[in-house]
Amino acid sequence: MAKMTKRAKAWQGQIDREKQYDLTEAVAMLKKFAGAKFDESIDVALNLNIDTRKADQQVRGMLSLPHGTGRTVRVAVFAKGDAAAAAEKAGADIVGADDLAAKVEKGFLDFDAVVATPDCIPLMGRIGKILGPKGLMPNPKLGTVTPTPEKMVKDLKSGMIEYRAEKNGVVHVMAGKASFKEDQILENIQKFFDTIKTGKPSGVKGIFMKSMAISSTMGPGIKIDMGSVLGDAK
Fold it and tell me: pTM for the full model?
């Protein structure tokens, strides 16, 4: 039997793994138990009543959290000429075209998000098999393929994130850091929920949001009372 850590012992008796907690109470508990030597992430897992095999039940998009994620995001931009200069001025970490594609082909992936201008889309054909599996492929529906990459660079740098339902219908997002104030974490989570709620796919019947839980990097998962966030709109 695995030995229980001191932190796990501290949770014992204070967190009921089967109980559904009010969101405000759950966030306070996570902050209380986030005692790692690094600034732990606060993560949300939302279980949706969707069948991701069906085209009319897809859940994916971009979301700007009011307080960001607390994470430093490295943005790569595939662009040329004035667009490349504008992206670089906006704070892009890596800017290039054929030269950047060649680096990626050789294994360079020191970035967290990718933006591309329409004229650089042919380059994606060369490196799509590398970027795709890592969730880095730019997409016009998400705004990451754009003739004005500087705006998306600023958005990504300020905390815009991509969300996407996995095959099992669960959406995972990072809602901040343990160092954030409770109100900041709560506002970020509420914005995420509101965004998912308003984007309910047309093919979904009945209850859309089934269950949810929040956790910190090294902390326990805490089940959330859906009513504490969404009221009657599920």
Answer: 0.84
